[in-house]
Amino acid sequence: MSLQILLTVAFGGALVTYLLGKTSAKVRNFLAVAISLVLVVFVAYLYGKPLEKTFYLGFFGLGLVLRLNMFSWFFAITIAVVGTLSIIFSLSYIRAREKTDFYFLMMLLVNAAMLGIVLAGDLVSFYIFWEIMSWSAFLLISYNRGPALAAGMKYIIMSVIGSLCFLVGMLSLYVSFDTLNISQIASAITSASSGYILFILTSFGIAFGIKNAVLPFHTWLPDAHSEAPAPFSAVLSGVLIKMGTYGFLLILYVIVGLKLFLGLGSSIFSFHSVLCLLGAITILIPTFIAMLQTDAKRLLAWSTVGQAGYIILGIAFGTNLALAGGIFHFFNHSLFKALLFLAVGAVEFRTQTRDLDSLGGLAKKMPVVFIATLVGICALIGVPLTSGFVSKWLIYKSLILEGSPFLAFFALVGTWGTILYSYKLIHNVFLGQLPEKYKDIQKSPFSMQLPMIVLSLAILVFGILPGIPLKVINAIGISFGFESLNVTLWGIASETGTLNTINIFSTVLVAAVLLWLLFRLGAKSVSIPQEDSYAAGAHTPADKYHYTVEFYNPLHRMIKPFLRDVIDEFYYWIAASVRSLASSVKRIYSGDVGYYVMYIVLFLSLLIFAQMKWKLW
Amino acid sequence: METMVVKITQIILSPILALVVGVFFLGLARKIMARIHWRYGPPLIQPVIDMIRLFYQKSVSHGRMFDLGIIISLAGSIVVILFLPFGRICPLSSSGGLLVILYMMLLAPLGIALSAGQGANPNISIGISRKLILSLGYEVPLLLVLLAVMTRYKTISIMEVVSAQQSTGWALFSWPLFLSGLSYFLILPAILGIRPFDVSSAPQEISSGTMVEYGGKYLALATIEHAFILFISIALFVNLFLAGATNPIIFFAKMLVVFVLGLFIHAVFPRFRIEQAIKYLWKWPTLLAFVGLIITLMIK
């Protein structure tokens, strides 16, 4: 019963917010925040209460089911939290814009739909919520107009293709097993042939791969993420693409099951190793592309593609450590990528630009945003003591010990590439020279700072005490049929290598405090303005030397020729050919009745000719 | 209780030991370089004298991150040293193994980059950009090397790598890992940032790059940091390929040999351009490390 109430609050709240927005903006803002907070509390309250309930029977004889278990709870709480924070961030971000009612309606609707997806217990309701999510996301991506319209169009076309693949898989399952209830399919599918399972996995894999932006289905993501409004980019990158991850977990481990999935195919040509390889490539190539970007959000968007690769790699590798790493990385990525998109949004809100070549030196002007970004990139790189480290550690360790060093190599090189682009992000925005025009820039409003502070704290807490989320993740792993991990509050104990974050934390802390004291003991330093820097005796004029432009120029020159997005070009080629085909078809339908009469006459004469010649009838 | 005391003594002593060895290496480097150039050279303890003097000299600061970054960097290095076994001593062996070392080694350049980045000097931006590109360059072969070692000994714990070598012989002279060891030695100058790979600190070209705004105690701390990096990169090589050692004296002797060999390269080669450096690093060392990893995989 409570799941129905939850979804009613989520969907109903969105509509009520929209309607109230017509009367008063204040009430609308309050209600939007209140509803999303209620959802967080509600989902948190449902922790550890497994539920399954059929709420509607009349859909062509199929029961629509809602269910809650540890697996869906973990995704639900992430969605609710990230959604709430981005709505709080939106309050000042969107204030001066048009159609704010519509914006809040769509934000709440996307959140509600995502909650519906993870709570759905059968494929029909899954599909319905999936479509609501896709379409409201489309409207939000195009919210900014201009180039955003094209980005949204690209997104929705790929989304629709994904949905069609989903539909094919779903109908085929219905024909074979006469049910669409997830748990019933899971028990029936054990008798299916391996060819059939491969077909099911491929069709669902394309659907979820497009949402999760796995190579070669990633092309919509960079455009959509960079053109959407910043708080929605946070939701998009943080949780919306993770619905693909959820789908992968659902189809691989809940429906098909661990044994069947790993047993599909042989050695290198098995489904499992192909998926791992796709994950590894998805890590590597986008990471290098991200280094070359000059638009902050586009850089983060490519980084999202790369990080999604870690998640897929972890999930597809199919050991308990790697799976835990993959799911944990999904969670971490939701936190830190949402944080980074919000931070870039906060900078854009004040400076009206996100061009990495023209910003700089904002650390002193926006200290909170700077620290948030610092925590975010540390987690993105996976610096120890942030939660990003633990998840990557789990994935690497599993890959190395299970004898896949090349996959581990891809993942590790991806991390070192991550350092390059994340440093570029923080250096070009917050460090280096402050341009003259940003001398009097204001701090961010509190409603923007609050979500960033919450997310930064979460990243640090879960980095030092990773046991909190790992306990839930371990329960998910057990429900998928994996062996239990030996999780403690500050890490993982096992015979092949223990992780102890509290040790690392305390030594870093003690070392830093001692060094700080040593630093204070030395002669005092004088604070000087940025123009007063060493330039071999010459004066450094402000705004003349801006070395953030083309930050990695030598590398850029070397790798640029290898990084053409061939896949995107291919899709555009398909689109162009379809368009030219359509326009040639259109030439036949000229709209002139005379032509149509001619077609009819020609066709009839063809029939008559055929009859006279070959006596067909 | 007694083990606790021993452990704490080790934790306190090992960074100090590392510092002494690292600073000694800095002094020795200047001496050896001078002799190769037919000069007399400064006394061995010159770096210590410099550091003490610098510590009491006036300096300039460009902001909070400028101060904090260098502390982060040093703290990261100290933690790495606590994870590295030298001799039988490894104060924090059981907290994540080689992967944690790899990642903690990141904090050192990242901290310096964040600190220097606030300096708002064009030379710094160029220096950092080069440093990061160079580190991407040498990480590719380095990761292949480390993966080969971890695959060969089927562990991610550096203690186990060391003890396995002490029973079966040095990894450098065992068949497949010979290639990896050679590759590591070829990239060692790049890891240490010495010629022919001193692109990021090129003194004549970009005024020492990241160091340009450091003076006084900042420069003193940066020198300590440099000594730590020297210690860590060489100690890692000794642990992974020269079987570590059973007592610290032999360990430092091995380190000395590796370091002096590296210095000879440093003394006679001119500086690469950054593109040349990347091309070199991604060619021979990577190829060697790659072949080493493949053979390790096939033998297993």
In summary, what is this structure?
Helices cover about 70% and strands about 5% of the residues of chain A. By secondary structure, chain A is mainly α. In chain B, about 60% of the residues are buried.
Walk me through what this model shows:
Chain A has 617 residues and is mainly alpha-helical. Chain A folds into three domains: 1-193; 265-490, no CATH class; 566-614. Chain A contains 24 helices and six strands. The longest helix of chain A has 32 residues, at 320-351. Chain B is an all-alpha fold and 300 residues long. Chain B has one domain (2-299). Chain B has helices spanning 2-36, 46-55, 64-83, 97-117, 122-153, 158-168, 175-192, 203-206, 216-241, 248-268, 274-281, 284-299; one strand spanning 59-61. The termini of chain B are far apart. Chains A and B meet through helix 16, helix 17, helix 18, strand 5 and helix 21 of A and strand 1, helix 3, helix 4, helix 5 and helix 9 of B. Strand 6 (525-527) of chain A pairs parallel with strand 1 of chain B, so a sheet runs across the interface.
List key phrases describing it.
heterodimer; A: 617 residues; mainly alpha; 3 domains; 3-stranded antiparallel sheet; two-stranded antiparallel ribbon; globular; B: 300 residues; 12 helices
DSSP strand count of chain A: 6
Q: Show the largest interface.
A: A-B, 73 and 81 residues
**Helix/strand/pairing category of chain B:** mainly alpha
Overall helicity of chain A? over 70%
Q: What global shape of chain A is seen?
A: globular
Write the layout of secondary structure elements.
The complex is a heterodimer of chains A (617) and B (300).
Chain A: H1 2-21, H2 25-45, E1 51-59, E2 62-68, H3 70-93, H4 100-119, H5 123-141, H6 147-177, H7 182-188, H8 194-212, H9 220-227, H10 230-240, H11 242-256, H12 258-262, H13 271-291, H14 296-317, H15 320-351, H16 367-381, H17 387-401, H18 405-430, H19 446-464, H20 467-479, E3 487-488, E4 491-492, E5 499-500, H21 501-521, E6 525-527, H22 553-559, H23 566-588, H24 593-614
Antiparallel strand pairs in A: 1-2, 3-4, 4-5
Chain B: H1 2-36, H2 46-55, E1 59-61, H3 64-83, H4 97-117, H5 122-153, H6 158-168, H7 175-192, H8 203-206, H9 216-241, H10 248-268, H11 274-281, H12 284-299
Helix pairs in contact in B: 1-9, 1-10, 2-9, 3-4, 3-9, 4-5, 5-7, 5-11, 5-12, 7-9, 7-12, 9-10
